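Question: Send over one sample?
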Amino acid sequence: MRKTSSDLGTFTIKEFLENVHLLQIGRKRKIYLIGTAHISEESVKLVERVINKVKPDTIFLELDSDRFQAIENQDRYNNLDLISIIRQGQLFFLIGQFILSSFQKRMSEQTGVEPGSEFKKAIHLAHQLESRIVLSDRKIAVTLKRAWRMTSFWRKVKLFVSIMFSGEEKIGKQEIESMKEMDAISELVENFASELPEIKKVLIDERDTYLAHSLAQEECKIGVAVVGAGHVPGILKKINSNISSREIEDITHIPDPSSIGKWLSWLIPALIFFIFIGGFFQGEYNKLFDAFYVWVFVTGMLSALGTLIALGHPITILAGFLAAPVTTLHPAIGVGMVTAIVQAFLVKPRVMDLKELSNFKVSLRNIYKNRVTKIFLIFLLSSLGASAGTFIALPYVTKILF
């Protein structure tokens, strides 16, 4: 048992049951912190057992409003406007949410327990007991955007490759249950930190802080908190550390793109523009036409090739060819946005495609099969093709004009 003091009063932390800690905050507040494995049948039973035993007035969930609605509203995808999501630049983050959930889906197929079943059970019991539900996690969009902005390019590539080509490793029920043990969790977290430290900081450490702040600040007499076991050590460490509102503001702020990235995004188009202007003032219009032809052909063809590899619609491939020479000169408009919108308009995602994303299993076959993830692949490969075309064509254009 640990006993400490903070601005909120005296904290007492003791083990109530296996994987359940009782947090006594002052004299009037008790919170039972349950560490779960999100695909464990035993975790579902544990949540039900604790809630029925202590009859909480408040139930804290490691969910944000979007993930809560995903559980409550199974038909939420019927009205999803994918074209608007692409225009707003949110396609990556939509797909990112489903990539994260796909790992749990892989393991859930082996255990027979749907990911997040312990949250569903807690929500059901909250309605039965008329307990207040507190969504204690940070917005998933904020988490993904912070992870993206704070991770280097090569670590992003490493993560993407590991997702795309990860094997179908079998995992048994006993191993799932061992994920709730503190030593096993600590080992997993440390391994994650050594491989992808920025992502570990955003996905685990910052959310530990956010969750701990929510538990400490929300008023209740008897509360039950249902969180992933990986967050329990961090919450126990931070809940009595007087987390300031400034610290919460810092970890909910989305960092601006790096200044180097901003400069480069405008520098390359400006450089190309001035090369063509220089060629124009030299008065050798035949060379200018040849340079223009090379630029259009190389950037357009490589963007079209990327779209073809993604098995885009023929008109989408043509759109990639026509748009790339223009969009590569304007950093605010990407060819991927153009090809994704055209593909979404021509080959509209079906309701079944949208519903499949809830339980999406990442593999090349499934990415090509699902119309939503195929749009994302078209977005990605057409953009990569246009970028490659820019760096390949630039020296040739310079050589022709000068």
Q: What stands out?
A: The chain has 19 helices and seven strands. The beta strands are 2-6, 9-17, 20-25, 29-36, 58-61, 132-135, 222-228. The radius of gyration is 25 Å.
